[in-house]
Specification:
binds nicotinamide-adenine-dinucleotide; globular; 324 residues; 5-stranded parallel β-sheet; alpha/beta
Length: 324
């Protein structure tokens, strides 16, 4: 059998994998993430199956190659956690899941946008402290009067745009490769106009190392309205997190919600809750800004529909690898 070891495996995935199990594949499930410390676990397998917060840098890929592991699968849309140059040099084959239900991430971005725009996190945090006075931060225009800016109008961005369109918001989009035929859903604008006009700015831009690192930075934040909120369900690396922290602190933007954070393998997908020890870390600084800043633990694809798609496409990837 073609032996695959799956890392960062959640309990709800195992049943799905087993239900779909195709003849010829033997799955081994590990709940822990692949790191430098536990690389020994991959010995004896034909392939590894990863998720976003697993380490597949040159060191780990070289080690896998030494042990004869030719296949590196990831059940994620983003594949920036895999050093493609190293894999190529080792002759390793990398396969990913180009798409699953885009609404998995779009629904989350939509919800986070509503939460931060209406100051729901702040309202809940106050009532937890028995402060039941309405906070002016919750006094905002209704959906029908909001403008939402979608940066990156690919599969996920467009799915979020449809949700906002459906509740009556005005939707602006920016993308270097605009799509035809979506005039009913959104209006394309320059990045500058989008940032200046939007009440909610939602990022859906893929990260390409060395190309768009930290492109969403102080200049972009300065263009946003002080009443506007930023949502990132794409990748932390496309933003300058320090600039976001500074902008929230200074009141240059009203709030921030993120499903992604730099160094996220230290926190997300751990078997036990992860302690945040370093007060200067981005995570600690985000937590200190709660409820203006909220963090979700990379749950964009954590839906029933997406899970089903991720697992069936992963099996197709294994089957294609076997065919060569
Ligand atoms: P996609 O390839 O369908 O769309 C990406 C779009 O971004 C493209 O239209 C592209 O032209 C555009 N783009 C590229 N550079 C840009 C820039 N500088 N400014 C504006 N637009 C730009 O990808 P997708 O399926 O919509 O996924 C988007 C990203 O979401 C993924 O790359 C991944 O990093 C992230 N993601 C996150 C989760 C999660 O769990 N939070 C899950 C899946 C995907």
């Amino acid at each position: 059998a073609f032996k695959i070891i799956s890392f960062g495996t959640r309990d709800n995935e195992v049943a799905h994998f087993d239900a779909l199990n195709k003849e010829g594949f033997e799955m081994t499930y590990k709940s822990e993430n692949l790191t430098h410390d536990n690389i020994d676990l991959v010995k004896g397998f034909d392939g590894v199956l990863l998720r976003a917060n697993n380490v597949a840098d040159k060191q780990n890929l070289d080690q896998m190659a030494e042990w004869g592991i030719k296949y590196v699968f990831t059940r994620t849309v983003g594949y920036n956690h895999i050093d493609l140059d190293a894999a190529k040099a080792n002759g390793q084959i990398v396969a990913y899941v180009p798409a699953y239900s885009p609404y998995a991430v779009a629904d989350l971005a939509f919800g986070l946008g509503i939460m931060q725009n209406r100051n729901l996190s702040g309202a809940v945090a106050s009532s937890e402290k028995s402060d039941f006075r309405p906070n002016p931060a919750s006094f905002v225009p209704e959906f029908q009067s909001l403008t939402v800016g979608i940066l990156g109008t690919g599969k996920i961005g467009l799915a979020e745009a449809k949700l906002w369109k459906g509740v009556g918001a005005k939707v602006l989009g920016y993308d270097p490769y605009p799509k035809d035929g979506i005039e009913d859903i959104l209006t394309y604008a320059s990045m500058e106009d989008l940032l200046k006009e939007s009440d909610i700015v939602s990022l859906h831009v893929p990260y390409f190392k060395g190309s768009n690192d930290k492109f969403f930075a102080a200049d972009q934040l300065k263009m946003m309205k002080s009443s506007a909120v930023l949502v990132n369900t794409a990748r932390a690396e496309i933003t300058d997190e320090d600039a976001i922290i500074a902008a929230v602190k200074a009141g240059d933007i009203k709030g921030f919600a993120t499903d992604v954070i730099s160094n996220e393998s230290a926190y997300f997908g751990q078997v036990e809750p992860a302690a945040v020890k370093d007060a200067s870390s981005t995570m600690a600084q985000f937590q200190a800004l709660y409820p203006k800043v909220v963090v979700t633990p990379h749950i964009g694809s954590y839906t029933e529909n997406a899970l089903h798609d991720m697992i069936s496409i992963s099996y197709q990837n294994f089957a294609n690898a076997l065919k060569g």
